């Protein structure tokens, strides 16, 4: 595997989940693979889970791991060609990327949508420059339009907790005070559309996601209706995608918060969220603390999704 940016990169999805569950049973079985190999993780944005779980995954595989926070300690990077660099940016990404690539064997990149220019975000300008200029296998640790390590961990978690062959999985928008990217819902939809689940997306009008990710999924604008009979409720906020509102907050409607009353509409569903989550905006204390909340096992599986991807990349070196 040379790149990991979306569900297609995993090939046969059932085989990938099976491999992940095997790795989970004995996560040190492949320690020899990473001997004398270096993983570089580059962060343009903050992280708790991705930083720790991906580093742990690399260590499980016997790799050395290095972490660079671009905005804390590294030079500020210019990302556009042709700019006269007389401002606060000391280095161009076109030098920085091959230099970073020369010190490692595999690179993970976190570079969120900036909400300044929709085309730049949806063309994955930063991630794609790493793929093009680093000379090394590159995986997304949440880029502008996707968070495939999260969605893979989500699928592994659903596989572990499902009680029927084809569970109903409902992804619901929920309110949040700040504009958040569409990366997490895009990737979750990308994966659920390929998985053997009954997938429904619910959000207020105006929050439609890119059809490239929604594909054939059912979209229901009435949250209560969507939640009926759900086996898994996957909550997430995102800012508007469609023009002319790209990156804007259109609603903070608290009637979309996932509460005990909302969960009562479901088939005793499990509650999921990628974290970090704002309590009593996205989800009530009661729901996230309930026995049906699987947010911690979900986060725990981030180590496993990362390890599966990095293992495949090591095997391709
Ligand atoms: C980010 C997002 O919504 O994309 C990261 C989630 C994994 N969340 C925040 O910035 C709060
Ligand atoms: N879910 C997730 O990616 O969390 P972090 O932003 O803390 O890495």
What does this structure look like?
By secondary structure, the chain is an alpha/beta fold. The chain has two domains: 3-146 and 302-316, 3-Layer(aba) Sandwich (Rossmann fold); 148-298, Rossmann fold (3-Layer(aba) Sandwich), CATH 3.40.50. The chain has helices at residues 13-25, 49-60, 93-102, 118-122, 125-133, 148-161, 183-192, 211-214, 223-227, 260-263, 285-288, 295-315; strands spanning 3-4, 38-43, 64-69, 77-78, 91-92, 106-110, 138-140, 168-173, 198-202, 218-220, 232-236, 270-272. The strands form three sheets. A five-stranded parallel β-sheet has the order 1-7-6-2-3, sandwiched between helices. Strands 10-9-8-11-12 form a five-stranded parallel β-sheet. A two-stranded parallel sheet has the order 4-5. Helix 8 (211-214) links the parallel strand 9 and strand 10 (218-220). The chain starts with a strand and ends with a helix. The mean pLDDT is 98. The chain binds N-acetyl-L-norvaline and phosphoric acid mono(formamide)ester. N-acetyl-L-norvaline (AN0) binds at residues 142, 180-181, 183-184, 274, 276.
State the gist of this model.
The protein is an alpha/beta fold. It is built from twelve helices and twelve strands. The strands form three sheets. A five-stranded parallel sheet has the order 1-7-6-2-3, with helices on both faces.
């Amino acid at each position: 595997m040379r790149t990991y940016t979306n569900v297609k990169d995993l090939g046969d999805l059932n085989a990938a989940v099976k491999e992940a569950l095997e790795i989970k049973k004995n996560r040190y079985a492949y320690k020899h693979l990473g001997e004398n190999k270096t993983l570089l993780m580059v962060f343009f944005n903050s992280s708790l889970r991705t930083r720790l779980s991906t580093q742990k995954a690399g260590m499980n595989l016997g790799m050395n791991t290095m972490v660079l926070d671009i905005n804390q300690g590294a030079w500020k990077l210019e990302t556009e060609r042709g700019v006269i660099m007389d401002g606060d940016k000391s280095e161009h990404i076109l030098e920085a990327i091959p230099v970073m690539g020369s010190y490692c064997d595999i690179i993970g990149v976190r570079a969120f949508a900036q909400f300044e220019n929709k085309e730049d975000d949806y063309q994955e300008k930063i991630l794609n420059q790493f793929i093009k200029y680093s000379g090394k296998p590159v995986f997304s640790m949440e880029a502008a339009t996707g968070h495939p390590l999260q969605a893979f961990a989500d699928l592994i978690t659903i596989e572990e907790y499902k009680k029927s062959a084809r569970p109903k999985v409902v992804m619901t928008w929920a309110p949040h005070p700040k504009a958040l990217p569409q990366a997490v819902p895009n990737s979750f939809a990308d994966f659920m559309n390929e998985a053997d689940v009954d997938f429904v997306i619910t959000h207020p009008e105006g929050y439609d996601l890119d059809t490239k990710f929604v594909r054939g999924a059912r979209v229901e604008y009435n949250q209560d209706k969507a939640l009926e009979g759900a086996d898994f409720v996957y909550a997430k906020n995102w800012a508007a995608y469609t023009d002319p509102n790209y990156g804007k907050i259109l609603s903070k409607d608290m009637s979309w918060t996932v509460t005990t009353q909302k969960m009562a509409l479901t088939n005793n569903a499990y509650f999921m969220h990628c974290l970090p989550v704002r309590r009593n905006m996205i989800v009530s204390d009661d729901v996230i603390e309930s026995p049906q909340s699987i947010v911690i096992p979900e986060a725990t599986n981030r180590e496993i999704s990362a390890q599966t991807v990095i293992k495949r990349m090591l095997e391709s070196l």
